[in-house]
Backbone:
């Protein structure tokens, strides 16, 4: 049981990126994943912090004109094990949005969109080799509710739909988490798909797909364990639509290298993760995702 508890491995930190609509900018809408902590059976409560950075080319004819964006999020998470193979996961994020362009700064803060989903374990088994490899596969489905404000304004104009605290729409979530591990090593693969619907303003964000593949180790450190990890993370987003019109300068894909370090002892876990962009094609090349960082604290019960 203790080894299973140690397979906390990595908080799946991903982004649900948005791209340009009435103006070019990076993402603001729930800039994190649904917060799956795979590979273990226990319930938990915890908090995560996310930091995303972007640079946007607001005028193709003047590439020196950049908008700089910073997105911070604090996310309260909980997971409840209803039965040995069934879990319920919930997230409550609070976001802080900052954007600077030509000396003008724009800031917003508040509750973002809440997510709730259920997970089912469909593949638990151990092979017969002496290495003692274990496999687990969880799949899930849920909803993202429009609890964040999506009609923020500034003194001059309505704020860009991509620079809002929420999307204003009910969106569907599908997840998959697979891991294989022994006493010292492991590999995990995670997928998150978000099916977006049209909000009350007749705006629809493109569907999102996030994927992560990572290898990790479990090293003894005193009474606890240290779990270093390295992997690859990719985001893909379809085109947005506004009143039925396709926004060509939106959507795209981005690839990141991921490094992580997690410490586990008893019922608690601390972790930090870093993402460095490798190749990006976002908003027809007008948005450049920068490095990202996250940290988390989790208490298991």
Residues:
């Amino acid at each position: 049981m203790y080894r299973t508890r140690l397979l906390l491995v990595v908080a799946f930190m991903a982004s649900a990126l948005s791209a340009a609509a009435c103006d070019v900018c990076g993402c603001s809408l729930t800039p994190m994943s649904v917060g799956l902590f795979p590979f273990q059976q226990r319930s938990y409560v915890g908090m995560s912090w996310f930091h995303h950075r972007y640079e946007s080319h607001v005028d193709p004819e003047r590439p020196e004109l950049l908008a700089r964006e910073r997105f911070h999020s604090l996310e309260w998470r909980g997971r409840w094990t209803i039965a040995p193979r069934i879990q319920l996961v919930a997230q409550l994020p609070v976001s802080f949005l900052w954007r600077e362009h030509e000396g003008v700064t724009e800031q917003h803060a508040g509750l973002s969109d809440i997510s709730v989903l259920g997970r089912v374990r469909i593949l638990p088994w151990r092979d017969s080799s002496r290495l003692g490899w274990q496999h687990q596969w969880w799949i899930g489905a849920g909803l993202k509710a429009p609890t964040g404000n999506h009609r923020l304004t500034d003194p001059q104009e309505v704020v860009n739909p991509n620079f809002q605290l929420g999307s204003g729409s009910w969106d569907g979530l599908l997840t998959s988490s697979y891991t294989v591990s022994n006493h010292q090593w492991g590999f995990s693969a995670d997928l998150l798909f978000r099916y977006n619907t049209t909000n009350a303003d007749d705006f629809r964000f493109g569907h999102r797909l996030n994927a992560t593949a990572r290898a990790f180790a479990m090293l003894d450190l005193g009474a606890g364990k240290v779990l270093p990890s390295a992997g690859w993370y990719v985001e893909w987003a379809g085109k947005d639509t506004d009143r039925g019109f396709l926004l060509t300068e939106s959507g795209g894909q981005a690839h990141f290298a991921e490094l992580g370090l997690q410490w586990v002892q008893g019922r608690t876990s601390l972790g930090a993760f870093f993402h460095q962009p490798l190749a990006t094609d976002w908003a027809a090349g007008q948005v450049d995702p920068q490095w990202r960082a996250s940290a988390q604290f989790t208490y298991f019960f």
Observations:
- Residues 2-6 form the longest helix (5 residues).
- Helices lie at 2-6.
- The CA atoms of residues 262 and 271 lie 4 Å apart.
- The chain is about 0% helix and 60% strand.
